[in-house]
Specification:
Length: 737
Amino acid sequence: MKNNYLKAFGVFLLVVAIFLFTSALEYTREKEHQEQKLKESLSDIEDDIQTSIAYKIVAASGFKDYIGRNPTFDQEEFSDFGEETYGVGDDVMRNISFLTDTTITHTYPYEENKSGIGRDLAEIEAQKDWILYTKRTKETIFTAPVELVEGGTGFIVRIPVESDGDYLGQISMVFDYNKIIEYSGVKALSEDMYVTLVSKDGFKASDSVVWSNLDSETQVEDDEVDSVDIELYDSKLTIRAFPKEGFSGKSSLFYIIIATGALISSVSGFVSYELLSTNEMLRQNQKQLGEAQTKLMSKNEDLKEMVDKLESSEEHISFLAERDLLTNLFNRRKCSEDISYHIERDGKGSVILIDIDNFKNINDTLGHSYGDKVLKHLGNLLLSKIPHGSTAYRVGGDEFVVHMPSVIEYKEIKSCVDTVFKSFKMHNSIESIKNHITASVGVAIYPIDAITSEEVIMKADIAMYDAKKLGKNRCHYFSDDMMRSLDWKVNLESDLRDAVENGKFKLLYQPVIDAGEKRIAYFEALIRMANSDLSPAVFIGVAEEIGLIVPIGEWVVKEAIRQLLEWKEEGHDLKPVAINVSPLQIRQENFVEFLKEQIESSGIDPSLIEIEITETVLMENREENIRSLKAIRDLGMGIALDDFGTGYSSLSYLAYLPVTKVKLDKSIKDRFVNFEEAQVMEGIISICHGLKFKVVTEGVEDQEEYSQLLVQGTDYVQGYFFSKPLLPEDAVSFSIR
């Protein structure tokens, strides 16, 4: 019996030992299961972070190659690329920019980030090293994270761009730090885990904590921490995590084994229990194997989907690289490539550049959406009407190009242009609205006019602008005279900019005579370029075109006031000075405030300043310009209407203008001052007097004209008969005389 007891006790001990061993295995398995689950979560985060960034980088690869081939790309092309890149994958990108050398020259989205254009990032300490490292090594790098110039924190990918083997610049892709953290699942994992995201800076060989929910008081054992490294080019992110409650093997199964083992050891049923436990463990392992297999298949599907999307994106980027999205015509880049191709192979052809006349009016009156429909309509017309073998392109807002390879004969080119004009005239109804659509056309022929695509397009553009300048709705062929005229204009623009920057202007003062008393009433200030005989009638128009008329006009005001103060200090009897003002100055928001500031700061009597305007002030923004003129009058200044009798002159609009004088142009005087037409001149002067305006007659050249004008009732006269424009010191002498 004792032996049986010992055997039973031995069996008991054996069963207990078996179940203790089994419980230890379960403890270890459960702990390993928790660790494996954490590894899978970290692996998913690694995949999500890499995928979020990889989508965008692959999308940028095509444009990198495009820039290398076309280093003169413009902001519009870059915006098209940026918009497409934004649409690839998650919305984790904040902005994308192109740095020419180390300076931002292109950016998207443009409106939100245009203030950064022109900023040299090599001068920003936080980004300087990475910028120069990318430039020096020509390696794509990942920077994570950095403090951004525009505020906040982000991950930055820098992709060097080369042209003909030389460094050109770099594409900078800024990823939103918070969205990367959120979309990757780091925040979700932190609900049950302590998570730390550490950046390994390969360039500076240092670690820094990117994100963590671990407080400084929590103690962590190294063997409890699991981690995964995320390799991103020359940088590395490491995710470290461990359960907030620590890893534990005490699962429900663990407690069941302990209880069951105790029970079975008591009733000697260890064999049955051992079989059941073994079967249960086999089923659990099979389930885990099935889940692992399902997950693997899911990952394979995700990978296949990602590859399909990348291939689709690459095809779409290739399409965008050569197509205009609005009209579906080929774009300017494709136009340049095609012309270059034919120049290299066929050696001859013609380029027809078409610019829609007054297209801005369509946008302003019917809206940009309708304007887009007009452009689509015109694009379809070109596709259907141009000769076989020719290609149509949209190269700008309202500009199209027709390329006719191997065609240089005038007859064939004229036939194509005539067809375009006729089509635009006949097919001008869009959405039941009839439009008056005309175009100015320029033609250039290669290799006669040019031997490169850029040059032939430029010369077609010059011819087009020559056609537009001479009345629009016509076609001009490029000629060397146009180029000489353009060179002259470019040189004049350069001289004007130099004169503005270095103060190379001067004012002459022409007396305006009181007709009845034959004494000086006031002076008209007339601008001249120092050391140049060029007439203001020539350079003022150019200054208006290139935007220099405002600084020039401000200089005239300041100089006239300065001269009046100088005459006052010298003790001379002051006469008012009339200053010519461009409509572009009147349209400036701060022009009235500028005049007010000059009067107040100088202390000059505002009645000594008279503003001379022309009727073109009513051509655009009439109501706003009239309000500005009334504000100028309220400052105490006089206002005169200059060049009356030219252009669109009409007595009807005089009632709208707050003027006190009307200056009759020399052409009116020459036409009507003679005795045969004297009644017409008297009638004009009489009407002006009836409207309470004083009348100044310009261009008086002899005593006979003066005497006749005096009889006809003019109030003031001005012209070479009395005096040419004078230097300031000569004007003083003339006044005294």
